Amino acid sequence: MTTKTILCLGLGVPSLPADWDVIPAATPAEARRHFKARPCAVGLLLVRETDSCDDLNTFLCDHWMVHWIAVLPPAALAHSGWRQLLLDHCADYHSWPVDGERLRHALGHALGMAALREEPAPAGGADDVALTGKSPAIARLRRQIVKVAAASAPVLIWGESGSGKELAAQAVHAHSPRRKGPFVPINCGAIPGSLIQSELFGHERGAFTGAARDKRGLIESAQGGSIFLDEIGDLPMELQANLLRFLQERTIYRVGGTRSIAVDARVIAASHVNLAQAVQRGAFREDLYYRLNVLALDVPPLRERREDLLSLAEHFFHTFSSERAPRVRGFSSRAEQAIREYNWPGNVRELINRVRRAMVMAEGRLILAQDLGLEPAASANAPLQLDDARIRAERDAIDASLLRAGRNITLAARDLGVSRMTLYRLLAKHGINAPSQGRYTDVPSE
User: Taking the CB of the first residue and of the last residue of the chain, which one, N or C, has fewer CB atoms within 10 A?
Assistant: First the structure.
């Protein structure tokens, strides 16, 4: 017999079946301690007349992934604060005195929905997952990074803007024998032309007006580690010659200096422009290009990683969960379809920005395609065929009904005027209820 575990916050725990493991917590502080030691997917919130709506709201914001079922005094529903708390944080609510049978049914439904939810991505920075995924393109890049990292030759990374070139460079450094040394990133296009030589190579005191003391350059500061030259195609031609000398001789001269300084640092360069074509145009030194292009990595654009799109979107949803509107719980099936079909010209950076904006702007419990700012796959200007219009209208009606029914199959079927089996066939037809998504349940409504 499977044990059903829930956390019960409040006084007066109702009677539940023997196979239910209830963790009681009298206060939010006690509940926080329990969650740290033993996380639960479902919580029961027992509200009394003396409870503070603001205190509970703060607690529920911190534990937004939990499916909460609330029991509260009927009079509380007359207050806007309590109504908003229910809308923002609770999957269902009941009033005192509690109907044990109805409450057990609601908790069982919540446990079923929680079991269907995929595990959230591990916590971390917004970009630390950009090189993970199951797509062949990203798997190939990971294998190449491990091979390239073991060598000591320069690395040239090509990729579109926002695709994760710096992350690839960090991965090369992290897997290399130089991992304990510094990783120094430099955006060659972001440093003013008048300062870039001093920033890269450093300067001696008195080399120019304002040079009051000696200064180490960024290349020198990467001693024993790796230096990442992002957008190296923007490096001025005169500095390309200095960089070439460093690659050949492993020494630099500070601005205004006369002595050479040995620097042991691996150069990793990246560009979103084709450097071979830049060489043909005379915009990039050919000899420097061949010095850099010893070990080449190609970071795939996001449109070539469609298998990874939804997992990345979910990761960023969880990473920036503190920014989301309180009631937002995830993505609608139409939003997921829009994510899969969009070409993502801004790559991972664009995906992060769209997800963050949608989390703030969404007005319902699920993020919609319009919240992401994504249009349907078909062009808005293209003529819409009758069959396409019928399919789209049918899908929209199903999506709307499921949202109204709280993803309950029985209620949604009743709302649409079809049988549950018919609704299941429609879900399969439109790809809304794929087994891997696990988004809907057929537990009967109360």
Answer: N
